[in-house]
Amino acid sequence: MKLKLIRCFQVNLTKNLLVPKQFYFLVALLWTGLIVFFCLIKSSHIPVVKITNIDKIIHSFFYFMFILLWFLFFKKQLNSSDILKPLGMLFVISVFFGITIEILQTLFTTTRKGDLFDVLANLVGAILAVCLILSFNKYTNFNKV
Q: How far is CA 133 from CA 65, 87, 89, 127, in A?
């Protein structure tokens, strides 16, 4: 009797660990928080790397991953074969999110300034993610993700 109860608990625990919606949501939310944190901390707390335009590459990477992670969540949440609607919505959200972060840098930090080139780098990362998702969907059956 006790063994059956333990097995039942283990199966339920395993099922709960494999729930993709909550996992995707948590990872996407943590990534969004990471973007906010690194974009709003004092610039003196950021390590200096002597590579030309490394900050623009990092901005592009941040927003590339932002789109990918939130897309995985919304794809599971909506459970629809139409990927254009969540993808378009995420693209618009990422653009406004990036602009908002740049405005917050200007208004609420003393060591950071909003930069139009940062917004453009965010846009490049978002566009690359959208292109990757669309081409991945074209050549595979993305509906199974």
A: 12, 9, 14, 10
